[in-house]
Design goal:
Layout (H helix, E strand, L loop, with lengths): L2 E4 L13 E4 L4 H11 L3 H5 L10 E5 L2 E2 L15 E6 L6
Parallel strand pairs: 1-5
Antiparallel strand pairs: 1-2, 3-4, 3-5
Length: about 90
């Protein structure tokens, strides 16, 4: 059973309009690399030029922000759910 990854609307053009995709991996970073193989260009939208997660991109593993875990090195297991959430700014 793979890791399920929820894709936000702005990135779905890269995933052929799929809102959920799957990957087999051991860490969050490996999930992103696997998804980039399946959907070229995805990694560039998530990582900056230093290879770090962009500030406006949040990734949750089973409702836990990976920034408060081990970041890209956070382990994943079959059946886990990753959610890619772009930050939203604005207001009055």
């Amino acid at each position: 059973m793979p890791v399920n990854v929820r894709i936000p609307t702005p990135l779905r053009k890269l995933t052929q309009d799929k809102d959920v995709v799957q990957a087999h991996a051991r860490t969050v970073g490996e999930v992103i690399e696997e998804l980039n193989r399946q959907f070229p260009g995805l990694r560039d939208r998530l990582y900056d030029e230093r290879g770090e997660l962009r500030r406006f991109v949040n990734i949750y593993l089973n409702d836990q922000d990976i920034r408060f875990a081990q970041g890209k090195d956070t382990p994943v297991k079959d059946g886990d759910e990753l959610a890619i959430i772009p930050a939203i700014a604005g207001g009055a």
